[in-house]
Amino acid sequence: MGILNKFKQLFFVKFRIWKYKLLSDCENVTGIPICFHPLLLSGKGRISFGKNVQIGVVNSPLFYSHYTYLEARNKNSEIIIGDNVSINNGFTAEANSKIFIGNNILIGINCSIIDNDGHFLDLNNRTKELLDGKEVNIEENVFLGDNVTILKGVTIGRNTVIGNGSIITKSIPPNSIAAGNPAKIIGSL
């Protein structure tokens, strides 16, 4: 019975990966990530994967229930992911302008990066599409803990560690440890 259960699990996961690949509508994709988890690629912009980009972690929460969502929303929007990046389950990145994820990055469970406000604050314009964005940059050798949210215009310096549950509203310098809501520097490396 153990072998049959493993087969069912493998079939279920492979089917989900195939389904989300079929649902993806982004036509400007370069590179091929290693997918252990469903990945939905959306938008009119460009999504680029470096070498050895891993999507999903088998022995981790949200593996069977979530998917990874990358959206380069507009024609000029970009999401660029460098080499040797490991993205855990339930990750979201939404770019109106540009999101850059450097080399040798670890991203925890249920993290999100968004380079725009999503909606206007003005009540009369709230349902209109927001086109502007401010670039997000994650430099090399950064570790993002679980449930981290990175907002527009932020740069996270190289070799930095961001603690679980942090909301990054301002840039973090290199070689830092930051945590909190909003995140503050709590140490250095």
Explained architecture:
The protein has 189 residues and is mainly β. The chain is built from 1 helix and 20 strands. It has one helix at residues 2-23, and strands at 28-30, 34-35, 39-42, 46-49, 53-55, 68-72, 78-81, 85-87, 92-95, 98-101, 106-107, 112-114, 136-138, 143-144, 149-150, 155-156, 161-162, 167-168, 176-180, 183-188. Strand 19 (176-180) and strand 20 form a beta hairpin. The longest helix is centred in the N-terminal third of the chain and has 22 residues, at 2-23. The model has no long low-confidence stretch (mean pLDDT 93).
Features:
six-stranded parallel sheet, eight-stranded mixed sheet, mainly beta, 1 helix, 34% strand, 189 residues, globular, 20 strands
Question: Topology of this structure?
Answer:
Layout: H1 2-23, E1 28-30, E2 34-35, E3 39-42, E4 46-49, E5 53-55, E6 68-72, E7 78-81, E8 85-87, E9 92-95, E10 98-101, E11 106-107, E12 112-114, E13 136-138, E14 143-144, E15 149-150, E16 155-156, E17 161-162, E18 167-168, E19 176-180, E20 183-188
Parallel strand pairs: 1-4, 2-5, 3-6, 4-7, 5-8, 6-9, 7-10, 8-11, 9-12, 10-13, 11-14, 12-15, 13-16, 14-17, 15-18, 17-19
Antiparallel strand pairs: 19-20
